[in-house]
Every structure is written in C-alpha cells, then in structure tokens.
C-alpha cells in the first residue's frame, strides 16, 4: 500500500507522539508499505515552524529522507489538478495532497475528514 502522510501525521510519527492512531502507526511502520511525503507537506511544516505554529525538527527534508520515506515532488499535473478541484477545502497544501494522492494512487494518512469528500482513500491518523 502507498501511504501519503498529511503534515500532522508526519510530525506525530517523527515525534513518536501517541496522538497518532495505532492503525496508522502500524501501517507506516510496515516495510511492505511505501510511505510518501509530499514536498508540499515539507513546505507547509517549514512555513508553520517559522511562524511558531508547530514544532518540527531542523532540516526536515533530511529527516524525512533518513526515515526512509519517499519524497513526492510537486509535478505540473499536480498543480493543475489541485487548482481544478471542487472548493471543499481551501487549504492549498491539502488540495495538493489530494491531487498527488490521486496521481500516485496513495492513501492519505490524515485526521482531516474533508479529504474523503474528494473521493480519495484515507487512513485515520
């Protein structure tokens, strides 16, 4: 299974935070699954960290790489699809995850229920 981590799921995983749902934790830890982190998620977390809204490690891109996660760059087709989505969600980072999950055929690990309105599969974080 391909898993695409939303920002909070990534941060909870990296911090070994008990807020992360047990099933999500098991799926991320399962070596049979591909765990993907979008460049948009790294961008979002880095911006929020600079604003003092979240706590995140320095060098997040390197931390993600060391964790063995796969980086998902933002492709032009992702940008086009994200821009054309129904306005269920106004957050541009989450809209990008919807587009990437669709293209990559990935399950989004998130607590944000709005993702399901786009018809993509989610796993509760």
What this model shows, in words?
The chain is 45% helix and 15% strand. With 125 residues, it is of the alpha/beta class. It has a single domain, classed as 3-Layer(aba) Sandwich (Rossmann fold), CATH 3.40.50.1010. A five-stranded parallel β-sheet has the order 3-2-1-4-5, sandwiched between helices. The longest helix has 13 residues, at 92-104.
Summed up, what is this model?
The protein is α/β, with parallel strands linked by helices. The protein is built from six helices and five strands.
Count of the separate structural domains: 1
Helix-strand pattern: EHHEHHEHHEE
Structural class: alpha/beta
Distance between the termini: 16 Å
Largest sheet: 5 strands, parallel
CATH topology: Rossmann fold
CATH homologous superfamily grouping: 5'-nuclease
Based on the coordinates given, report the CATH architecture. 3-Layer(aba) Sandwich
**Which segments are poorly predicted (pLDDT under 50) over 5 or more consecutive residues?**
none
Mean pLDDT: 96
Report the count of strand segments: 5
**Radius of gyration computed on alpha carbons:** 13 Å
For the largest sheet, list the strands in their spatial order: 3-2-1-4-5
Helix segment tally: 6
| Percent helix | 40-55%
- CATH class label: Alpha Beta
């Amino acid at each position: 299974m391909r898993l695409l981590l939303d920002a909070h799921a990534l941060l909870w995983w990296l911090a070994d935070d008990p807020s992360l749902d047990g099933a999500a934790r098991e799926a991320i830890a399962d070596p049979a699954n591909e765990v993907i982190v979008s460049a948009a998620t790294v961008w979002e977390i880095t911006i929020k960290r600079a604003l003092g809204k979240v706590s995140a490690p320095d060098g997040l891109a390197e931390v993600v790489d060391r964790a063995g996660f796969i980086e998902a760059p933002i492709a032009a087709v992702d940008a086009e699809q994200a821009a054309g989505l129904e306005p269920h969600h106004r957050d541009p980072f989450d809209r990008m995850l919807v587009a990437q999950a669709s293209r990559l055929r990935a399950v989004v690990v998130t607590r944000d229920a709005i993702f399901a309105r786009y018809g993509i599969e989610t796993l509760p974080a």
